[in-house]
Amino acid sequence: MATQAATIAHMLDTLSALPLTSRRMFGEYALYLDGKTVAFVCDDTLFIKPTPGALAMLPGAERGPAYPGSKDYIIGSDLLDEPDLCCQALRVVWEDSPAPKPKAPRRRKGP
What we know:
The protein is about 25% helix and about 25% strand. By secondary structure, the protein is an alpha+beta fold. It has three helices and six strands. It has helices at about 5-15, 50-55, 85-95, and strands at about 20-25, 30-35, 35-40, 45-50, 65, 70-75. It has a single domain (about 5-95), classed as YgaC/TfoX-N like chaperone (Yope Regulator, Chain: A, 2-Layer Sandwich). The longest helix is centred in the C-terminal third of the chain and has 14 residues, at about 85-95. It has a six-stranded antiparallel β-sheet.
């Protein structure tokens, strides 16, 4: 079941203390903070990237795969009840994540 747009709108509103953006991907969504992927929303569930800082901050958090065959992510849907803590966790993920690689320019096809 794909994530509903209303779910994303609610999450972005709840976490409005951060400049989060979302991008639809294969019926689900990725959440970005300043250009870095910090979480996914699959089947209306928030999955936070399990970086070392996030795991240390949320040691007892439930973990599970975001989609069949994926690694385990921190299941963060319950954190939406505590927006400040959720925002802190997403900020830690952002700090732990490397900068995105610059996109290569598209090559023009010759005549």
